[in-house]
Amino acid sequence: MVIVMKPTAPQEMIEKIVKKMTSLGCQVHQSQGANYCLLGLVGDTSKINPSQIEANKYVDKLLRVQQPYKLANRLFHPEDTIIDIDGLKIGGGHVAIMAGPCSVESEEQLMTIAHAVKESGAQFLRGGAFKPRTSPYSFQGMGEEGLKLLKKAKEATGMPIVTEVMCQDTFDVVEEYADILQIGARNMQNFPLLKRAGKSQKPILLKRGLSATIEELLMSAEYIMAEGNLNVILCERGIRTFETYTRNTLDISAVPVIKELSHLPIIIDPSHATGKWAMVEPLSKASIAVGADGLIIEVHHQPECALSDGAQSLKPKKFAQLMEAIKKISEI
Amino acid sequence: MVIVMKPTAPQEMIEKIVKKMTSLGCQVHQSQGANYCLLGLVGDTSKINPSQIEANKYVDKLLRVQQPYKLANRLFHPEDTIIDIDGLKIGGGHVAIMAGPCSVESEEQLMTIAHAVKESGAQFLRGGAFKPRTSPYSFQGMGEEGLKLLKKAKEATGMPIVTEVMCQDTFDVVEEYADILQIGARNMQNFPLLKRAGKSQKPILLKRGLSATIEELLMSAEYIMAEGNLNVILCERGIRTFETYTRNTLDISAVPVIKELSHLPIIIDPSHATGKWAMVEPLSKASIAVGADGLIIEVHHQPECALSDGAQSLKPKKFAQLMEAIKKISEI
Amino acid sequence: MVIVMKPTAPQEMIEKIVKKMTSLGCQVHQSQGANYCLLGLVGDTSKINPSQIEANKYVDKLLRVQQPYKLANRLFHPEDTIIDIDGLKIGGGHVAIMAGPCSVESEEQLMTIAHAVKESGAQFLRGGAFKPRTSPYSFQGMGEEGLKLLKKAKEATGMPIVTEVMCQDTFDVVEEYADILQIGARNMQNFPLLKRAGKSQKPILLKRGLSATIEELLMSAEYIMAEGNLNVILCERGIRTFETYTRNTLDISAVPVIKELSHLPIIIDPSHATGKWAMVEPLSKASIAVGADGLIIEVHHQPECALSDGAQSLKPKKFAQLMEAIKKISEI
Amino acid sequence: MVIVMKPTAPQEMIEKIVKKMTSLGCQVHQSQGANYCLLGLVGDTSKINPSQIEANKYVDKLLRVQQPYKLANRLFHPEDTIIDIDGLKIGGGHVAIMAGPCSVESEEQLMTIAHAVKESGAQFLRGGAFKPRTSPYSFQGMGEEGLKLLKKAKEATGMPIVTEVMCQDTFDVVEEYADILQIGARNMQNFPLLKRAGKSQKPILLKRGLSATIEELLMSAEYIMAEGNLNVILCERGIRTFETYTRNTLDISAVPVIKELSHLPIIIDPSHATGKWAMVEPLSKASIAVGADGLIIEVHHQPECALSDGAQSLKPKKFAQLMEAIKKISEI
């Protein structure tokens, strides 16, 4: 950490800060320039509260040096985390494909799609039973009934289930049915939910918030890991920008950045990133080429009747073609 | 709603869509241009699922005409909503000032600040007992102990309490102590929490999410209102943009926009909007001048020792000066 | 400047960098932590090229301490710059009001509006003769003919003229007629144009780019000042964000931020900031309350016939009312 | 175009607007709902000035149906534009690789890099002689001297030259030496420059502005094309968002979006998109996989001595490896 003092800071105030920082357990080196005085802090800076320092009117700014996350940090855990679910691996170069409908709508719908994506090579079945919707008047999901159908689909296809958990109250029931618990973009900083997820034995698929920085995403992973659950899969799903042609803007650079900063697996959701089915194929190819550990894709056999996200769902035939292309790219 | 068909759309497909839309209960008017065919939909469009229409490959795009919120819409409720708490009014031209520390830290700290802000003319006491923090290693608030101190401060000063509720599990206890329940920016689309708030008898202070559009903010208010709680106070607290000098960017235009679209009161939080105490005074003045229904301001007598948000807290003396300026502007 | 070395950096590489930095004329202080080594650089760092340092694979990052602008920096010029045009002052607490049509369209149009705004108390007449338009098929301005009409309007009303200069080729002619030369948002980083403006004797009104940081705005002012023209007026006119209800998002915090960082006057353009005439009044009031040195406002007597920006133009009667309100707020 | 009237609009005003629109040459269809009246406009809407309509206080909003660009529009030109430069093709499935230093610094520097990138398979040599720099105190390029060196490098390697043109004053000289004229991101809406480029016989490489929408990029291409130069190559180079870890955010979706909307070639600049050399390889692979028509990459043999952009330049060896990977992906 580096404290930059204002040109007007009296020597006495600089000394007072040096003393306080030293008392908190770190070493301070002072560099005096013509206009600015820099205080370089090394050692254990964990007891320092940056906002208290910035409250001082003689402090110009505070520059952070270390990442604030530890358990998610590649610096302290150089090897890739690989998550194993019924023998299927996520992370460390394995490409995991999760596919299925946005929402579970009926047994027939789910079974049709589940068999189709399985046949094309998907390894995990996605499907929402509890649905976060912008409008209170939209379809809110089938709830536990939907979870039961997902269980049936798992029994029929052997595919582990990925489904969203929206709150503490329904956590236990979702945890019972799901193999991977998804925490949605809008809940990325729902801290009580993250803490509860940290106490679960199941892997967590944590989606990046619409306007979350990569560091904030890793801090949310840290919340889960700090409670004891180290099996966190990160998911880039598009961020909010000024561009309106696509629903969101896929931040594909997040993949190499996260590979550098963290050991956790990172997958991409091309369906939510654009909101348009025609964009899913090119973005999926790009995601594999950039080095993502997998994809989560919305597939529906009748998008024009889907209760949610029809516009961004691939038909099974398109999905099958996409799987062929992905196979070729991931071989390179 | 207007459906724009692609130039390649066959007549038969256009007729099919017209038929389906008519069967859902609305009237359709067709305008045929050289390249595009427009379908204008009027009447009851509530049964239409836009995403299903956009899934059709012959549909170019869908243009929405009506706002998706009803209860929060000024169109159906032209009069300003005025919320009355122990005789203090929020909305309709009354300027409500809420002030206090970011976090409740101790009885001494809270009492000192509460008396100071009361004396300067604040009407409501703010203070956090349950704190959402980006890092799991930061101070997480005093919890129920903090709520009890807030109650004491209310007894001592007569000021109603504004405090944040973070989750379903702690809702009941916060509801018991608070006069206004705050839902934070990061929870603006925590839909189960919004539904629970909708069942409360207490007014809800709903903060705009970091990257939420004004329409999304109003849809979140709609979630609360649809459950029966019509006492929602909106709060603009800065949005996330590319500018990094301030912590967030105060979207001051949100005030006149919301006044046009909705009848709900809208206040401003200048402390979080900038993250810098020196900016709080000018932004507070601007907020009153633009027509906001109030302010929520962080005040601390020792910012350099504050357990959270010291950098953006005003000292009591500065707050007193600010209250003088606010009084003059609000008289105009 | 602070160089943060990666944990893997060999001692030899650190020494090499220290040596190079010292040879460039600055002093280096080293702080060795458990994981990171910090190099604090003070003295004359102007010969250092940051990108060269970041190209080193052992460098984690580079933290800047000093602002890169000098002439525009309040640190080296604590007093407010006050610009005097025919006895009218801009900066240092004087509130300057510039008003007029978006485009000059005809003699009758310009004279009608000029007399109206003069009567309401505007001090400067704005009006575009060369117009930057997003579409090549839109009205591009009257060119020199428009400049001549502006001159006539000045003769008739006594108001100095503010008009936009778009390129090097037409600089001389615009310079001849205008009292203040406006450089538009889309040209904020048109560096050859900035250099030419720096050679002019006329004050420059420099508008902030749609996605320019405040630092970049000040660096563009520095370009002009470095060529010798110190009379730069900055203008905040809304930045581009994800919010689409308003055309842009007025970053009102830019005013106190710039007052802190620079001595140059800063005015606000509420017309472009929102794109809606109904928002101009509240935002103008807020701008004065926040401490802006003036406003530039679009006024048209027949907005529904305006060749450009009709949607954001105030009618003269509304403008007159606004001027009354502004007078009251600026008195406080 | 669709005009949405406010619920309060009197019938007489609706009729007045219908009449005016009809007089401008288009057909109007009226759909009357309970709260809103929709006016669907088809036929020739080119004479309508949207801002004039929005200036009417009874108009709620105006929804656009057609894209405002014509020459750049795939609707009117379904075949891909393929640009041929000395037998090298850009567009229509051909992958063009442009590589070289950010700035031309010396004959030795340029020749070393030119030979290296040629050997690895690059087809075009990039290099800046006139440099747009954020700071007036940074290296501004070698000017015409640099252009002469580029000519020498072309003679030695046979590679056509891509170089930036910054203004009208230096257009002629750059045009004389360059094979492709680059217009930089900060000049994307420098309309006089675009018009001049439209009169050139040389292909134009038009970079997307930092906060330009895809539609604005296509409108800028339209400016060039409307003057007669149809050889425009678009370039996505990262947009400005809230994420600060990378210099910009590569909007990789822009490639499939532009392929859908326009027939013009679209290439990607991964160097500026991230600002970090280590990200160039993964993003280049993703760019080819997503379907881009080419890449423009910064290469320097001594990045730690580069006069500009050292931090984002690849060393020749890394570039050679990247070319191998690109070849494999583009074969799929």
Automatic annotation (TrEMBL), chains A, B, C, D:
DAHP synthetase I/KDSA domain mapped to chain residues: 82-330
InterPro entries for this protein: Aldolase_TIM, Class-I_DAHP_synthase, DAHP1/KDSA, DAHP_snth_FXD, DAHP_syn_2
Transmembrane annotation, as ranges: none
Gene3D superfamilies assigned to the protein according to its UniProt record, in alphabetical order: Aldolase class I, Phospho-2-dehydro-3-deoxyheptonate aldolase, domain 1
Keywords: Transferase
GO biological process: one example: aromatic amino acid family biosynthetic process
Domain DAHP synthase ferredoxin-like: 1-67
Signal sequence segment: none
A GO MF term: transferase activity
Pfam families given in the database record: DAHP_snth_FXD, DAHP_synth_1
The protein, known as: 3-deoxy-D-arabinoheptulosonate-7-phosphate synthase
Organism: Natronincola ferrireducens
Taxon lineage: Bacteria, Bacillati, Bacillota, Clostridia, Peptostreptococcales
